[in-house]
Amino acid sequence: MSGAVTIGLSAVVAAIRDGEAVVLVVRPQTGEGLRETDSTGLPSGPFDPDHDRTFELALRDFVTQQTGFELGYVEQLYTFGDKGRDAPLADLGGVAPGAGRIISVGYLALAPGALPLPDRTASEGAQWTPWTHFFPWEDWRDGRPDVIDDVIAPACIEWARAHDPADSEQRLTRARALFALDGARWNEERVLERYELLYETGLAAEAARDRTRTQGLQPKGGLKIDARLGQPMSSDHRRILATGLGRLRGKMKYRPVAFELMPPKFTLSALQRTVEAISGVALHKQNFRRVIERTELVEGLGVLDSDTGGRPAELFRFRRELLATRQATGLTLPMLRES
Amino acid sequence: MSGAVTIGLSAVVAAIRDGEAVVLVVRPQTGEGLRETDSTGLPSGPFDPDHDRTFELALRDFVTQQTGFELGYVEQLYTFGDKGRDAPLADLGGVAPGAGRIISVGYLALAPGALPLPDRTASEGAQWTPWTHFFPWEDWRDGRPDVIDDVIAPACIEWARAHDPADSEQRLTRARALFALDGARWNEERVLERYELLYETGLAAEAARDRTRTQGLQPKGGLKIDARLGQPMSSDHRRILATGLGRLRGKMKYRPVAFELMPPKFTLSALQRTVEAISGVALHKQNFRRVIERTELVEGLGVLDSDTGGRPAELFRFRRELLATRQATGLTLPMLRES
DNA sequence: TCAAAAGTGTTATCCTTACACCCATGT
DNA sequence: ACATGGGTGTAAGGATAACACTTTTGA
Q1: Mind listing the pLDDT tens digit for each residue in A130-163?
Q2: Contacts of A88 in chain B (CB under 8 A)
Q3: Which DSSP letter does residue A150 get?
Q4: Is the pLDDT of residue A37 over 70?
Q5: Calpha distance B72→B234 (Å, rounded)
Q6: Of the candidates A103, A177, A325, which has its C-beta nearest B324's C-beta?
Q7: Does the pLDDT value for residue B127 go beyond 70?
């Protein structure tokens, strides 16, 4: 007969704070076997087949419990079921170790605009963290991040070399395409593939952790974590986070999801900063405005906001009523820098 | 404590046969409690947490077992976990009824070209079926299908009217947008939403079946199934199929997945027929060829195929090597008919 | 010779990109 | 006055959509 299965639900809750893309993370339950690399994770919890009617309802409930925050837009990301590969262990709240195979269902949630801070009462260790902390190499808004050429590229080359020539060439090609080496173009959507590559090369701290765990080894003291390679997360949460960021970057282009991150009224510059913070690339101001115009997704309110520094900007609102009628389109990204 | 969970895996295996889009379906194990509406389903089976290392490996195995067919391209679609709502019952091979909550993980698989018929030895009731059988309203290649105005639209209007005015208006708007009523444009990607609407209105035969099951009622004899509303499937399989068709229609536009359905050598017309069969719309021949040229995804072989009826056509091949390098784009659809 | 399907050419229109420039406010 | 950010105009190049037309085979 078949063994036990536990379903774990995890949420990537994204928002914009001061023009920066932030994500909701929790510190694990303080207690016994706490490890260094378990420092933070996504809000997550077990799915109770007896009481929870749907995944989504269960998810909304425990995110509110863990963070004191109510979710708006929610969509399913992916279901991870691999054995061994950064599998969640005993770090699901309320699930005893040895509960059998754990399946992980990831969700993406978007929180509108100038978000209320999670109220400290309900939230133990919940806090908003910029996701550049977890993926520093994904932020190209100020040009190509140094960490790519300084750390990632050399490590990838070494990793590729350590294999027979045929494999080696394939690995190099893959690294070049993903990290825009040797003149290849940066494709901002391939967040997950890049993280997976870093995991394979061992640059992602979780790789070493999973190896020691599955092989029953103890980590020998100081695992040196290079801050430039991002902060690791517990279990497979950084993988889910990468899936969420990639999905969001792609989806923004063909669905009007960017507006789910905005407050009811916003300036076009604020919208642009949001799109830039999510996509991680700098956009061309004038053309961005034209794109917005063309889509007709937005309506000027004739009201000005003078808190912007220079000339006051007009406030706009998202014409949410369009969602029902036409399958509204997304926003193309008029890039600024080419290389 | 939490109850038992069983993971069911289901595969939408798509292919092209004689220019028609077909999908692999199986007849359920002949045996005891067989019902009318359980006539066919997707290849599916339980996930064994003790033996299966990943979902995908498990899936490949039992599809081969059930159909004698080996999968190529595979991607995960969605994980369904709703209680009550067309939940799979005892129709998962090898799972006893009452095994607790069943979670359903859907996959999409693509089979290349002129596919080998599944060999009858291994396959009990496996067969390729055009997916227009399951979604007749999705085929707009010869213009707007009559069933929409004859059957679906009236039923949707009645369904909308049966509620208070505010709700009623929303429902009408939704139906209009999804089924291109009152001059709204047809959006071929929204397959799942349309099926869900038909389920809600009761036009999908599965709705009545699920109601009688969850309420413990017996179906009273002849449930009249209108063939123009498509053949129903067991458990939630038509929902998964709708998810798969929608995903494929969308993905074709931004990833070169259409070629996964083609044999190694093909004519441009065959490629166009494939794209049309999947997307369900007629395309403009000359402009389609221009689109193909522009993408440079394809390479002429200088060889002619004279089995085409008229003038022999040049054979082309997909430049698969591009997949490693650039994140190759998909195919835009140069529509033929506007209305 | 004719039907059927393959394949070529041309044009108007729209979208994207890039560049230059003006406007309104606070300090 | 000038720095700061908001907002407008315009022109080149490329992609799309809609035409009409020629070519090569089999029956």
Answers
A1: 999 999 999 999 899 999 999 999 999 999 998 7
A2: none
A3: I
A4: no
A5: 25
A6: A177
A7: yes
Tokens of A106: 């990831």
Query: Do residues A67 and A122 lie in contact, with contact meaning Cβ atoms separated by under 8 Å?
Result: yes
What is the predicted pLDDT for the residue at A90?
A: 40
Q: Which residue of A has its CA nearest to B324?
A: A174
Q: What CA–CA distance (Å, rounded) separates A300 from B198? A: 37
Is residue B315 within 8 Å of B298, Cβ to Cβ?
no
CB contact (8 A) between residue B54 and residue A101: no
End-to-end alpha-carbon separation of chain B, Å? 56
Residues paired with residue A11 on neighbouring β-strands, in sequence order: A107
Element (H, E) at A32: none
pLDDT tens digits, one per residue of B158-179: 999 987 888 898 899 999 999 9
Q: Are A42 and A228 in contact (CB under 8 A)?
A: no
- CATH 3.30.420.10, applies to B5-134+233-250: no
Integer distance in angstroms from CA B291 to C1' C11?
18
Share of chain B above pLDDT 90, in %: 52
Same fold? B5-134+233-250, B254-335: no
* Higher local confidence (pLDDT), B82 or B139: B139
Using the predicted structure, report yes or no on whether residue B97 has a pLDDT greater than 70.
no
In chain A, the DSSP E strands lie at 5-17, 20-25, 44-46, 73-80, 101-110, 127-130, 298-305, 313-318
Contact (Cβ atoms closer than 8 angstroms) between residue A29 and residue A127? no
Q: For residue B119, what is the DSSP state?
A: P
Which nucleotides in chain C lie closer than 7 A to a protein CB?
3-10, 15-20, 23-26
Specify whether the CB–CB gap between A47 and A8 falls below 8 A. Answer: yes
Residue A240 to residue A178: CA distance in whole angstroms: 18
Q: Which of A40, A27, A22 is nearest to A115 (CA)?
A: A22
Reply yes or no on domain A254-335 having CATH 2.60.120.380: no
Instruction: Give B-chain residues touching A105 at CB under 8 angstroms.
Output: 79, 81
CA of A313 to C1' of C25 (A): 10
| Minimum-distance CB partner of B49 among A76, A101, A324 | A101
Give me the residue spans of the domains in chain B: 5-134+233-250, 143-230, 254-335
Residues in chain A within 8 Å Cβ distance of B47: 5, 81
Residue A317 contacts residue A268 (beta carbons within 8 Å): no
CA–C1' gap, A294 and C15, in angstroms? 10
Judge contact between B328 and B256, C-beta under 8 A: yes
> What sign results for the dihedral spanned by CA atoms B297, B300, B305, B306?
positive
| pLDDT higher than threshold 80 for residue B37 | no
Is A101–B50 a contact, with Cβ atoms under 8 angstroms apart? yes
Residue with tokens 């522009």: B294
Residue B220 has which token pair? 């009273």
- Sole residue written with tokens 């080696």: A168
CA A203 to chain centroid: 18
In the predicted model, what is the mean pLDDT of residues B304-317?
Answer: 87
- Return the half-sphere exposure (C-beta side, CA atoms, 13 A cut-off) of residue B189: 15
Tokens of A109: 């949630």
Alpha helices in B32-132 (DSSP H): 55-67
Using an 8 Å Cβ cutoff, are B86 and B73 in contact?
no
